[in-house]
Amino acid sequence: MKINYKAITSPPNKGELTNRLEKIRILMDRENLDYYISFDPTNIYYLTNFAFYVHERPFILIIPKEGLPKMLIPLLEKGHIEQRAILELDFIIYYEFPAREGENWFDYYQKLINKDATVGIESMMPMGIVDKTPGKKIITDLIEEARIIKTDYEIGRTIHACKIVNKGHRVLLKKCRPKVLEFALYKEVTNAMTSKIVQDIPNANFRATQTTAAVWPPSISHDPHLVPHIFTEMEEGGPHVSIVQAQVDGYGVELERTFFLGNVPEKAKEPFEVMISSRALAYNLLKPGSVMSEIDKKVRKFIFEKGYADYIIHRTGHGFGITGHEAPYIAEGYDRKLEPNMIISIEPGIYIPGLGGFRHSDTVLITQEGYQKLTKAPETIEDLTITI
Amino acid sequence: MKINYKAITSPPNKGELTNRLEKIRILMDRENLDYYISFDPTNIYYLTNFAFYVHERPFILIIPKEGLPKMLIPLLEKGHIEQRAILELDFIIYYEFPAREGENWFDYYQKLINKDATVGIESMMPMGIVDKTPGKKIITDLIEEARIIKTDYEIGRTIHACKIVNKGHRVLLKKCRPKVLEFALYKEVTNAMTSKIVQDIPNANFRATQTTAAVWPPSISHDPHLVPHIFTEMEEGGPHVSIVQAQVDGYGVELERTFFLGNVPEKAKEPFEVMISSRALAYNLLKPGSVMSEIDKKVRKFIFEKGYADYIIHRTGHGFGITGHEAPYIAEGYDRKLEPNMIISIEPGIYIPGLGGFRHSDTVLITQEGYQKLTKAPETIEDLTITI
User: Fold this and answer.
1) pLDDT (tens digit per residue) in B79-118
2) Chain B within 8 Å of A115 (Cβ-Cβ)?
3) Which tens digits make up the pLDDT trace of A192-226?
């Protein structure tokens, strides 16, 4: 049974964010925490809808076990946070960084937490903030934990974000021809996505919005994290490997394909089919209860047995949420079970120096029955061989 | 005497980066450190020329007091770092995050540092990394310290970056007319800057390159950190406040102006002149030996005495370097002296609800004799009243 979730483009309401806070408080209670402190901008965005970059003026969210969360902010950002935050917050404002003695951010911060309290902190919290935090500190990533299972609202937003990358990828396949420059593709595809974002969400927050598009032509597609030069030319043949990613007003997704321009080199056929089969194997295992490390292990074993052991350089998948890369991980060492309402990538890859890379990636929702692919682009070698 | 520094667009050579490393080792020696550990991507970029985003797969630079620095990296990024890093490094490669027991990043990391060593760490180092770091840890921001005083090469790169924002601001003043949308200005100005960056530096690293442009029309210019809505319209009159910022292949700068379209409202004349005078006062104090907190104090005092005490919401200035916001700070509480080869902003501001904001900002080099403005745009109310 395919569930028909609908795309959502409206901002979260107060209830949605209050529920998220409630999830955190349940986790706090389980660990007997008096406070939980968040400094990570993605976690603060998740709970409040306020997006910012970390800079020298700290923003700190202090969640007591009861009552309004407190947010320590610089004066300069008061209007900005009031414009965007949806969760009800108690603001504590400091003037500047640095400031006169007794008026620094930490002078205010230290008064907000009891000295004998048990305080949960993020593993990403910078040492300079930890150092100023009173109480007994316990590293525990409660907000990352809560973010793993999506609400219906988050699923609707993610479905909308997938429509953006679907469009981007259509433009990419239409414009990608031999001799076209990387930079031209980047511009065309990101402009198409940005235009659609602005049409669909006129009030989109550009601090939580970004778009990326790139193609690795066959001469470099064996090295997927090498950043292509902007004057790189697309080539006849393949494998070309595309990346189209977007964070759409706070929701990160991706869509990636292996494709060919004009013809498929003979040597590329087998690794393409092995990639397709390894992907099919992964999808067959996608259902609540499957252990994520086991999926990765089986996919790797399959690729090993096909003779491509030396060409695996990354895990089978990762989670999506506010960012395009977060927990959960479909990776050996991550022994957790899949649950409904997780959103992950499936992207086993094979990278052969001298021949190229082979990887499709989709954004996939785990459902009660199994899974639902949220991104859409051609998948077969026939459909991905483009007439030039 | 005006020194004529020349713009530089070429990448740093090995000597430049080896000298930067040498600066760090002198500071390490002063604090008796056996190792210094860097996790902050801006610090790692400063020393190695390799730019990246922090994600779940850690990159860690380990600087022993002697011998090659070691860099712990995920397998996937090997090609990428080899493509960009210029400093000679010893790579230690882990497969993935997460990974099987015994093969995680921290299993490798912990073997790289002696248990009884004294280890310097950044105040921005995440607690989850600190927790896995062996030895006696001391929080000390040595690399930020070294970054404050620029080399001739860095000054040359910054001068080039200023040419980019100068161009951006010229386009902005040419295109900004009543009814023009924020989004259109953003696109025109950032496209003009990006095109020039690509022409001047064909191999620019886009992980260390970004451009921003925005105008706060008079209805919102009193609130400088509120992010304007993309469909905000420019207005007749003023004060409009512009921001043009760029990080150009690793060098951050800014140029900001208060300007008027067609006419200057009567009430805006006095605060504009107070802003101009407070700025002149700050420039008069710019020379090696001036204490930065004193400059801020005097500028604030001047604005106070003119009757605008309630309308100051930020410090007088901040440093530039790899980013557009870093130490040193022209702020009360920052009691350090100016030195030649610091690069800072001078931007005292007045923000009056119902009337608007008044702020010019330039990127300024401190020289032996005083200072040299590196950005260039009109400054007087006459030159900044644009015929419509």
Assistant:
1) 889 989 999 999 999 999 999 999 999 999 999 999 999 9
2) no
3) 999 999 999 999 999 999 999 999 999 999 998 77
Distance CA B159, CA B226 (A): 29
How long, in residues, is chain A? 388
Find the helix or strand (DSSP H, E) in which B192 lies. helix B182-200
Q: Which residues have a Cβ under 8 Å from the Cβ of B315 and sit 6 or more positions away?
A: A96, B296, B329, B330, B331, B332
What's residue A350's pLDDT? 98
**Which of B226, B300, B301, B350 is the mutation pick for testing A, counting most A CBs within 10 A?**
B226
Size of interface A-B (CB pairs under 8 A): 143
Question: H or E stretch including B25?
Answer: helix B14-30
Peptide bond into B348 cis (omega under 30): no
- For tokens 């992980």, the residue is B207
- Taking contacts as CB-CB distances below 8 angstroms, the residues of chain A near B331 are 96-99
Q: What span, in angstroms and rounded, lies between the C-alpha atoms of A369 and A289?
A: 11
Inter-chain touch B331–A204, beta carbons under 8 Å: no
Question: Are A325 and B55 an interchain contact pair (Cβ–Cβ within 8 Å)?
Answer: yes
In this prediction the pTM is 0.94
CA distance B282 to chain A (A): 18
Amino acid at residue number A336 = R
- Mean residue pLDDT of chain A comes to 96
DSSP string, A204-230: --TTS-EEEEEEE-TTTTT-TTSPPPT
Asked whether B363 and B168 are in contact (CB, 8 A), the reply is no
- Predicted confidence (pLDDT) per residue in B130-157, tens digit: 999 999 999 999 999 999 999 999 999 9
Q: Are strands B136-139 and B118-121 parallel, antiparallel or unpaired?
A: parallel
CA gap A234, B110 in Å, rounded: 43
Closest CA to B73 of B90, B83, B64: B90
B10 DSSP assignment: S
What CA–CA distance (Å, rounded) separates B249 from B9?
Answer: 9
Token digits of residue B311: 């309308």
Q: Which two tokens stand for residue B240?
A: 């409009």
CA distance B63 to B17: 14
Chain A neighbours among B 282-311 (CB < 8 Å)? none
Q: Is A118 exposed, middle or buried (0-12, 13-18, 19+ CB in 10 A)?
A: middle
- Structural tokens at position A381: 């070698």
Cβ atoms of A337 and A149 closer than 8 Å: no
**Domains along the sequence of chain B with CATH:** 14-147 (3.40.350.10), 149-386 (3.90.230.10)
Q: Is B123 on the interface with A (CB under 8 A)?
A: yes
Mean pLDDT of chain B: 96
Distance CA A74, CA A68 (A): 19
A52, A54, A55, A56: best mutation site toward chain B, by most B Cβ within 10 Å?
A56
ipTM: 0.92
Confidence category of residue B5, pLDDT binned at 50, 70, 90? confident
Q: Is there a contact between A334 and A328 (Cβ–Cβ < 8 Å)?
A: yes
Token couple for A361: 């990636």
Residues 6 or more apart whose CB falls under 8 angstroms from that of A42 comprise A321, A322, A323, A326
